[in-house]
Amino acid sequence: MGSVEELVRKQVVVIGAGSAGSTFALKVADAGVHVDLYTKERTPFEAPDSSSSVLLAGGYAAVPFENGVPLPGDSLESHVQDTLTAGGGLNSETVVRYYVRRFPDVVHWLEDKGIRFDSDLHAEGSHSAGRVFHVSDSTGQTVMGRLGALVHAHPNIDVYPNHMAVDLITQNKIVGARNRLDNCLGAYMLDTGRNQIKVVLANAVVLATGGLGKVFMYTTNPDTGSGDGFAMCYRIGLPLVNMEFVQFHPTVHFDPGAFDESARRILFTEALRGAGAFLKLSPDDTEDFVLKYDPRGSRASRDVVTRAEDTEMKRLGLDHVWLDCTGIDPKHLKTGFQAFNNHCVSKGIDPTRESVPVVYAAHYSNGGVLVGLNGETVYPDGTGVRNLYVVGETAYTGLHGATRLASNSGPEAIAISLDAAADFLETNRADPIQIAVPQWDPGNARESQEKEKLEVFWDGVRRTMTRKCGIARDASSLSEALEVLQDYGARLRRYYWDYFIEKDILEDRNIHDVSLLILQGALFREETRACHFRTDHQRTKLEYQAWTTVQNDRQPYLRPIPK
User: Fold this and answer.
1) 246 has which bridge partners?
2) What angle do CA 306, 307, 313 make, to 5 degrees?
């Protein structure tokens, strides 16, 4: 680590430049507030592989309206029930109803920003109607391209690429207190380009740091998905709920020749199965093998489909299964699913005539940092952290329950960010709390001569989680993983304090902390529910119809689901 910059004070700091962070920034900037937007690598608008928002292949689920009335064949109530069914009894019904009503507004907001959705609406798995607004099968690229252009052109937004948050700065930490209600004062930021720590103070901090897929070896997430926001919030004592519910996507291209991780996360949209594609066990099969597990077959929810894949692959010793799209009209396949078709053709596969090899991969965290509908981290019991908002995948509102209904997360990320921005504009204090915040103190840290250890930590944590805490879990494998990770944790802590801060050690520390959160939740929840499959507890149990909560310095506990 090089020099330490002077303290800098900002109006509002947004960490993460995907759809959630960009939406918040645009909303408050339009109101005249200056925003500093930090992103870990290049911005998602410049580097298409740097954000899950860009990689979004499906779209935005919302009931279509015309003249204030839902179009025939769909209704708000139908969308609510689909979401509750997918959620396995762990959604907050009040929250579900709120967001289902908000999602059409999100579509209109995007249209107002210049997005032109295709006229047809996709029907994805577990949706009872076609309600997924999309731009072919590359919706994320189109949306983030437009939002990125608006962000870069906005006079009230400064974008700082190549910056990674080290930790949040809170009043309790600075003064050594344990007040029930803490205050967020800013964040320590590592400028990875200049190898320099910045002390950034702000009236409010917005965490929009995305997902945690890099905890596992195989994921659809970009390289930035190391769970940074989850880990930072855990370290300041915030509650994280339902972390055991990691959703795996069932249709990721299996390419044995792809050695680079980015080439192993090509996701094929859920809408393909909604349009008639199905999964089979060999290229010559004509049977949808998921029908053995669910009457909906390959159109079932992701947890059902991935569990069926996992079971059959283990039973038969398969490396992958096959996606058969030959029942879809070739013209529609080439135009409505252009990105999918082009990718297959580039690999020498004609999806109109032959099946495509696919496998499941870690995709989305259904759990996250407990927040209110405005992304706030102050809770009704008077605990929490003021001046901190958490939005996007890092946040848990109660919408998703034990499994996310396909394409609900995209509009949720934008809706919560719009609401958080409105709350900030209404409640922002003109005079932030004045507390002397020290500069970053490297202590006796020195330049590392053992950087190969970082790769050992990185691979070790991820391989352990993939083998011991993947689709199928049991107490023995989870306990073994916990023991291994505790050993890694001790070594990581020594490395963290002995050597100068750098991006790799921060990501290693974060995936380690997040792995422990997932393991603790998975061990505590002794049942099978949605995408949490315990082979030693294969039934759903009424006593676990609550939110698993993991919090620093506490044993995991159950939190009643808000009405």
Assistant:
1) 365
2) 85
112: Cβ contacts below 8 Å, ≥ 6 apart: none
Helices 452-468 and 475-498 meet at what angle, rounded to 10?
A: 160
Q: Classify the phi-psi angles of 532: left when phi > 0, otherwise alpha if psi is within -120 to 50, otherwise beta.
A: beta
Could you tell me where in the chain the CATH 1.20.58.100 domains are found?
452-559
Q: Please give the C-alpha separations between residue 422 and each of 25, 53, 414, 427, in angstroms, as whole numbers.
A: 11, 22, 12, 9
Tokens coding 143: 């949306």
The label of the residue with tokens 């025939």 reads 72
Among the listed residues 273, 302, 473, 529, the single catalytic one is: 302
- Residues 306-315 as b or e (16 or more Cβ within 10 Å = b): bbbbbbbbee
Taking a C-beta distance cutoff of 8 angstroms, is the pair 512, 457 a contact? yes
Contact (Cβ atoms closer than 8 angstroms) between residue 188 and residue 167:
yes
* pLDDT of 358: 94
SS3 339: helix
Q: Which pLDDT does position 267 carry in this prediction?
A: 85
Give the residue ranges of DSSP H helices in 154-268: 171-175, 228-235
CATH of domain 249-358: 3.90.700.10
SS3 321: strand
Burial of 285 (0-12, 13-18, 19+ CB in 10 A): middle
CB contact at 8 A, 415 and 106:
yes
CATH 3.90.700.10 intervals, the chain: 249-358
What value, to the nearest 5°, has the Cα angle with vertex 14 and ends 8 and 17?
130
Tokens of 479: 């306990």
Nearest to 409, CA basis, from 67, 7, 147, 53: 53
For 142-155, what is each residue's pLDDT tens digit? 999 999 999 999 99
pLDDT beneath 70: ranges in the chain: 1-6, 43-50, 257-265, 429-433
8 A C-beta contact, residue 33 and residue 423? no
pLDDT at 477: 96
pLDDT for res 431: 57
CA–CA dist 243, 230 (Å, integer): 10
**Residue type present at position 398:** G
240-241 and 547-550 beta bridge pairing: antiparallel
Cβ count near 193 (within 10 Å): 10
260's tokens: 């680079």
Do 63 and 103 form a contact (C-beta atoms < 8 A)? Answer: yes
Residue 240 in tokens: 């994280």
Catalytic residue flag (residue 302)? yes
Question: For the structural domain made of 452-559, what CATH number should be given?
Answer: 1.20.58.100
The Cα 460–Cα 448 span in angstroms is 20
Residue type, 92: S
pLDDT in tens, 481-504: 999 999 999 999 999 999 999 999
